[in-house]
Amino acid sequence: MRRLLAVITVTAVLFTGAGCADDRPEPATPGAASGGPGGGAPGAGSGAAGGNAPEVCAAAQAAGDTAVRTYVEELGKMVAAVGANDGTAAETARKRISAALTDWRAALRRESGRAEDTQLKTLLADMAAEVGTLGTDVDAIDETELDRLRQRLDQLCAR
Q1: Which is nearest to 7 in space by CA: 83, 85, 64?
Q2: More reliable by pLDDT, 139 or 12
Q3: Would you give the DSSP letter of residue 36?
Q4: pLDDT at 143
Q5: How far apart are CA 31 and CA 61, in angstroms?
Q6: 11, 12, 98, 127: most buried by Cβ count inside 10 Å?
Q7: Is residue 150 part of a domain?
Q8: Region labeled Disordered — which residues (predicted)?
Q9: 31 touches 96 (CB < 8 A)
């Protein structure tokens, strides 16, 4: 029962965070007047990645969103299946969780290869390695680790 409550709590936190992830202000165009000191140099002081970063970030973030959403949904199904003594459904959910993490890792590697920005390329490669270390033991995966990984990408990709 505690596991089910934990799943519900994690689901609420992740979906709340996912809803806020799109609440970013629109970036100023390079020729737009700036409201504060420091001019309008794109990415100045923000740590934002350059080059083809918008496309790479969007693809990497979408892959992360899909992986976490699948993880949460399938974990809920797995807990319900275990509670109902349905080993087949529990194993199916476990395999889907593993596949979601594998797909996320592959997407991070692919986008790391595409990234022109060195900082973004390195971050994506590091994230792919970290997702790979999560393994396939669903009981050992820390849900907060998934969110922390997504936040690292969001920080670099925010403009």
Answers
A1: 83
A2: 139
A3: S
A4: 77
A5: 28
A6: 127
A7: yes
A8: 19-51
A9: no
